[in-house]
Inverse folding.
């Protein structure tokens, strides 16, 4: 009933808006106050109307009214509010329009029999009253709204469940189908008098029309074996000794015996956040298990989850990570993880619009080193990097968080294959450590631009084996930079050199840092300095704008049918270019303002080349031109005539192919003996004998 009333009210509201439109202009012109509509009939718990006109300094007062016994009219509007069971709310919907809404502040549930709760309806007609809303300026009413409320009670099942479990009773003691006509869960079925969801008031509506028979929960007639059906006319003498005394609810129509059970409803899909269970601290750490503090809480460090940075992500044992989190700052950070300071440290900020904000002691990096032994952690070392940042409106702050697990002082490095490189794994590079006489691992990198694409904010991505790639970043250059060409060249050269800070590259995917034969020297192409050009005030030549890495690979063997590839050589070459400001197309600002910048690209690329395997000496001209016995270019292959009887034939067992070959030889010899040549020999022998 409540849902139907709500729909009717919505339709009335729609008609109300259409009627108000022509009247709104008149009200605005005369600066009057009026409710639209001025009379409403409420059949649901909420009702609303519009107050149009100059609503400045307007106060609304609600009270209950009753019609006069003589005239039938209501009292004049009053600015004295009374306590009612309704809540009055106001919402400004325009400069000269206010939405007034009344909501019933009580339950519409129908009271049960002998129920003492006062927050329910004692009668089916729950609310029957008249309300008056007065719009007053001070103590003078200017407009009034009359509401006639006629609201019926909502029928709620008498025994609403409190959980989501369904209990099936044991049929040995209580039949499963005691009320077959109870078809609707937690609702009263009409004419089903055994339905426990029906209240007393509902049963009174159809108590004289209950469904008969077993479907209605009644057994009519009683089974013939019941002792109550014995009659003196047709009952045998032994009937009293074999008849059954049982309640009428226990009858053959209600099914076989069932031992009973409790069925828990399966939860459906939900968009709500599932409740998280309390963390359980393990006795020992294994790879991947979370690390706990002394108070049994997760040790959390900001990490990347599903592409987003999570500030309170648990740290997993023996799981290294290194992430960069980008946070858009509009004010100085005050909480973790960007503000990880003692309580006695403060941030000095310059106030005022347009002034630069200066934030001191902002955490820029947190690098954890976990020292482990066996299944435990022996110590933790934390390196925190702080700095001072300044900005005007907003700034994108990039912070770094990392965790490295060390067994002693050595980091467990992942290999890129065993033994050969796997496609898609990083190329391993290294540099000689003179103190340990071993090669310290590093990587060969390319540019990985992020956010704005500038080289200062760009990251580096490792070169993946077997995957050609090209990437780059942008460097802002001004006229002032072009006037200092040597400094600009050194600046670009240092940026390109940061991609490859190594002198060796690993031959295979699992190199030994102590075996120099597992590594190949990286060759760098020397730039040609014979061609000289002069710098100008607006251009610089010889800018190392492109770095190319060429890798030669070779298949050295097979492991389980998988070819094993090694790196035989790696060469790094550079391309030079001349940078000059482009002031065409109306963009003359960089050529006028010495501090105005233009973006120039710095690129890097990698190419992998497979070295063909040498299969033998080169073919002669005769082998190239004479193709009669070439099995690759002919349908008939005479050199492989006896191939089925060799050990290289694997189409069938060797014994079978040998037997079939001998049979073919036998047929060939037989055909030769019985054929024309042998017959001619016998004829000649016979003639000579005669």
């Amino acid at each position: 009933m409540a849902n139907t009333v709500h729909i009717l009210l919505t339709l009335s509201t729609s008609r109300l808006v259409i009627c108000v439109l022509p009247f709104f202009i008149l009200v605005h012109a005369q600066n009057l106050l009026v409710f639209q509509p001025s009379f409403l009939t409420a059949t649901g718990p909420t009702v609303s109307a519009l107050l149009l006109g100059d609503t400045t300094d307007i106060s609304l007062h609600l009270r209950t009214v009753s019609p006069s016994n003589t005239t039938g009219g209501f009292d004049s509007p009053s600015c004295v509010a009374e306590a009612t069971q309704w809540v009055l709310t106001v919402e400004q919907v325009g400069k000269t329009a206010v939405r007034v809404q009344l909501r019933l502040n009580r339950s519409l549930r129908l009271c049960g029999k002998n129920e003492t709760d006062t927050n329910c309806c004692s009668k089916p007609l729950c609310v029957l009253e008249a309300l008056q809303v007065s719009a007053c300026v001070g103590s003078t009413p200017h407009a009034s709204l009359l509401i006639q409320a006629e609201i019926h009670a909502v029928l709620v099942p008498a025994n609403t469940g409190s959980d989501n479990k369904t209990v099936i009773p044991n049929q040995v003691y209580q039949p499963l189908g005691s009320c077959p006509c109870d078809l609707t869960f937690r609702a009263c079925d009409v004419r089903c008098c055994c339905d426990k969801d029906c209240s007393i008031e509902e049963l009174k509506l159809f108590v004289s029309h209950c469904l008969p028979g077993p479907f209605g929960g009644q057994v009519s007639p009683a089974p013939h074996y019941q002792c109550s059906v014995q009659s003196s006319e047709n009952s045998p003498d032994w009937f009293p000794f074999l008849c059954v005394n049982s309640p009428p609810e226990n009858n053959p129509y209600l099914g076989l015996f069932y031992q009973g059970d409790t069925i828990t409803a399966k939860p459906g899909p939900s968009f709500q956040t599932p409740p998280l269970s309390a963390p359980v601290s393990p006795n020992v750490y294994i790879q991947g298990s979370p690390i706990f503090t002394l108070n049994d809480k997760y040790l959390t460090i900001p990490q990347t989850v599903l592409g987003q940075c999570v500030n309170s992500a648990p740290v997993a044992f023996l799981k290294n990570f290194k992430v960069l989190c980008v946070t858009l700052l509009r004010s100085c950070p005050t909480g973790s993880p960007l503000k990880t300071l003692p309580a006695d440290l403060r941030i000095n900020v310059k106030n005022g619009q347009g002034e630069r904000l200066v934030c001191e002691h902002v955490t820029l990096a947190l690098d954890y080193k976990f020292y482990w032994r066996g299944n435990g952690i022996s110590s933790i070392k934390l390196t925190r990097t702080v700095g001072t940042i300044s900005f005007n409106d907003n700034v994108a702050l990039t912070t770094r968080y990392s965790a490295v697990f060390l067994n002693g002082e050595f980091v467990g490095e992942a290999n890129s294959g065993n033994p050969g490189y796997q496609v898609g794994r990083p190329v391993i590079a290294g540099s000689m450590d003179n103190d340990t006489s071993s090669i310290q691992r590093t990587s060969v990198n390319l540019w990985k631009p992020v956010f704005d694409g500038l080289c200062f904010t760009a990251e580096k991505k490792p070169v993946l084996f077997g995957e050609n790639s090209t990437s780059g970043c942008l460097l802002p250059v001004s006229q002032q930079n072009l006037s200092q060409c040597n400094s600009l060249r050194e600046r670009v050269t240092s940026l390109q050199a940061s991609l490859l800070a190594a002198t060796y590259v690993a031959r295979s995917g699992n190199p030994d840092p102590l075996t120099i034969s597992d590594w190949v020297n990286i060759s760098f192409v020397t730039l040609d300095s014979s061609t000289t050009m002069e710098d100008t005030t607006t251009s610089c030549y010889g800018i190392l704008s492109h770095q190319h890495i060429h890798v030669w690979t070779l298949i050295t063997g097979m492991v389980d049918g998988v070819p094993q590839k090694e790196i035989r050589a790696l060469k790094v070459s550079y391309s030079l270019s001349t940078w000059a400001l482009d002031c065409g197309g109306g963009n003359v600002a960089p050529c006028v303002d010495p501090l105005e910048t233009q973006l120039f690209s710095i690129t890097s690329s990698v190419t992998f080349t497979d070295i063909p395997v040498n299969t033998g000496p080169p073919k002669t001209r005769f082998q190239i031109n004479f193709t009669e016995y070439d099995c690759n270019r002919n349908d008939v292959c005479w050199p492989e005539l006896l191939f089925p009887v060799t050990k290289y034939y694997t189409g069938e067992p060797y014994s079978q192919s040998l037997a079939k070959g001998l049979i073919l030889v036998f047929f060939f010899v037989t055909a030769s003996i019985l054929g024309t040549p042998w017959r001619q020999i016998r004829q000649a022998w016979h003639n000579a004998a005669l």
